[in-house]
Amino acid sequence: MSAPFLSQAFKENAVDALANVELQRALGHVERGFIQKRQKAVDALPEFDALRHEARAIKDHTLSHLDLYLEAFEGKARQAGAEVHWAETAADAREAVLSICRRVGAKTVTKGKSMISEEIGLNAFLEKSEIKPIETDLGEYIIQLRGEPPSHIIAPAVHVNRDQVEADFRRVHTHLDPKRDLADPVSLLSEARATLRDMFLAADVGITGANFLVAETGSSVIVTNEGNGDLTQILPRVHIVLASIEKVVPTLEDVSTLLRVLARSATGQELSVYTTFSTGRRRPGDEDGPEETHVILLDNGRSEMLANEFREMLRCIRCGACMNHCPIYHAIGGHAYGATYVGPMGAVLAPGLFGLENTANLPNASTFCGRCESVCPVEIPLPKLMRHWREREYERHLKPAAERNGLRIWAFLARRPKLYRLATRIGLKALHPFGRRRGRFSSLPLAGGWTGHRDMPAPAKTSFIDQWKARS
Amino acid sequence: MSQRETVLGKIRRGLASAKTAEARRDAVAQRLGQHPANTVPARGHVGQQARLDLFAKMAGKVSATVERVASASDLPETVAEYLRARNLPSDLRMGADRRLADLPWEKVPQLEVKHGPSDGRDHVGLSHAFGGAAETGTLFLLSGPDNPTTLNFLPDHHVVVVRASDIVGDYETLWNRLREHSGDDVLPRTVNLITGPSRSADIEQTLLLGAHGPRALHILIVEDA
């Protein structure tokens, strides 16, 4: 079993998304909410840019010593009573989780929000093994009820409207009075809180992700606003942490720097409400907390990215700012990408994890406007990395024949300047008179794919080179 | 070959560093041993009164309520008054922390004080914080029998006592104090950095308080300590 590869249908998905009225209504919240909140938080901290440069340097330093920091983390975590498991593939990580759950006879498992869990398709796998996974982050809970994957890495249910949540709660929470009033969002929140509270207390195992691992102390760090990740890890007897290998950072000072840019970039908060450092298991004398802690370190393609031109992607701290600022994401939302990771960061990460042959559409889903790179708290050159994937796509003959031939013709002309200029002159002569009146075309032969969704600007009368010559 | 050796082997091959193995190990050992600070926001670097003001302002911004208490011996009455003002039942739960246990609770005989971790049936949890960071109005709480972690999350109201002298400018200062406190350089099982009461914006990006954790966070700053 592997993550579903709906990315191949990206173009069809995007067309459907543009026509989906409910989705378009929900997407309005992304553009309105996240961008302003981030800017306000950034403006309130004069050191923000300095912190970004340092955050980048911390991750670069760690990545170039990754083996050593992972070993240091492992040693400290073991010293504090955690068991550390290594998993090369998604299947290895799933098996590691299952064998722990089986050994302790787990029936239900509560879960804090974890993108690694989504990446490895853990919920479906546990269900097949007759273990019930319960998502406890409100957004994750909503999409679990709806049987959907997350559409955003930090706001998984951002594509869902309030009235849809109400309908889902009425459908699933059949133990409650069908006539209850759920018009106020607060009543939805209270209902989820009450329903999940019993599940927290009854769960056998709690699974969380990790925003960071700290090599100095052997700690895993999660950030949440709801407190669900904490109830997930302190109430059950067993706590499992799912973390990918690039989450490790050296010291408490380094994690502090990263935390300062994470929440501000993500939700525009100065700091998330709950930032929790968990180190090993319950200590002698402790009256609460897990009796067993396991940390699963997942590779799943990351060590290959470390070796190639995509290493910079491993700096990502999953804040979601790139998708919050992406015009493509604003237009179509996350599901159209058809991958666990969406938006600009997904367009670079997904091909590395799930194979370019499954996800080649994603690096093409960009206008290269550069907003993603400009807001990235660890300065990942996302457009450049998308371009690298496009080059590989071309080299591996993954593009359709028509596109390859078009590029080939263009390349032939571009290498012959005289011929190129002649061709542009002919093209301009042919097109300019028709577009002169309106300044744009609403339809053009051979360009239906473009003009079907927007007008093509009409060209000037003469080419840039000719105009330049005329000036001098 | 174990998964561990497979993954570490792939990482090492991928890195193919120009530096010698020894230089790499030294760089890591140095970073971990010296844990140098990076840029620390200047906003917390002010005198003590201004720092307390900043802490209160930042905590207030994220919907915590802050009250200054002149003396620790006033705490039982202050806490009882908090419960009364909100029409809460007259009981609370706390851990074994001497800084709380030794308070003159006999001053408020109507208040029932329970001890130990919460099972989810308590209205109010009372904790003593290790410290506070003024830069974001953040409390640091340590797990253990003194202040069980369940008290931070299960009760609807979380009341946290913090000494004025433990409110510092930034996270780095508290990490250094914690390193001194823990000695053997192992952190307690859980260190909770808490910045305001629980919330969610998962429904239409509208901020709502009281998701899974406490609906209210009340911070009592003790000024004589």
Automatic annotation (TrEMBL), chain A:
PANTHER family: LACTATE UTILIZATION PROTEIN B. It comes from Afifella marina DSM 2698. The keyword Iron-sulfur applies. One of its GO terms (molecular function) is metal ion binding. Gene3D superfamilies: Alpha-helical ferredoxin, NagB/RpiA/CoA transferase-like. Keywords: 4Fe-4S, Electron transport, Iron, Iron-sulfur, Metal-binding, Repeat, Transport. This is L-lactate dehydrogenase complex protein LldF. One of its GO terms (biological process) is lactate metabolic process. The keyword Transport applies. SUPFAM superfamilies: alpha-helical ferredoxin, NagB/RpiA/CoA transferase-like. Residues 306-337 form the 4Fe-4S ferredoxin-type domain.
From TrEMBL, chain B:
Pfam families: LUD_dom. Residues 123-222 form the LUD domain. InterPro entries: FTHF_cligase-like_sf, LUD_dom, NagB/RpiA_transferase-like. Gene3D superfamilies: NagB/RpiA/CoA transferase-like (3.40.50.10420). PANTHER family: LACTATE UTILIZATION PROTEIN C. This is L-lactate dehydrogenase complex protein LldG. It comes from Afifella marina DSM 2698.
